[in-house]
Sequence to fold (133 residues):
Amino acid sequence: MEQYFSATQKMEREVMFPSLLRGVFPQQEGAAPATGGRADLYERYQLLKAIKPVVEKGLASVTDQSPTGADADADASSDAADAVDAQLEERLSHHLAGLQQVLTHLTRDTNALTRRYSQILEQISPSEGQPSW
Fold:
């Protein structure tokens, strides 16, 4: 999760003019750019910016809600409680693995967007070694 937050902070620091990303499509390694039905980098930038507060907020709103049916579970036998615990552990493990995959994907997209933005800036700005006059 730290890698995701680091990548989004870097993107926010470096992408000063998001409009430069309009009409620029992500390129995959060794592949020609494809524009059919895919979002441009500006749309991805907006999406990544919108997702960040949701990830930061986390499950705070979910954990604020009290679970229903807790009293019924208290009356269950220990065997049933053990089965429920095992099922909960399995579900939690599944969801954490999914969350890790999503965060890895978002981090990769964020880093790629930031790299591409830097490339665009290099193309439009004059070389540092040459005077601009």
About this structure: Residues 83 and 89 are 10 Å apart (CA to CA). The radius of gyration is 22 Å. The chain has five helices and no strands.
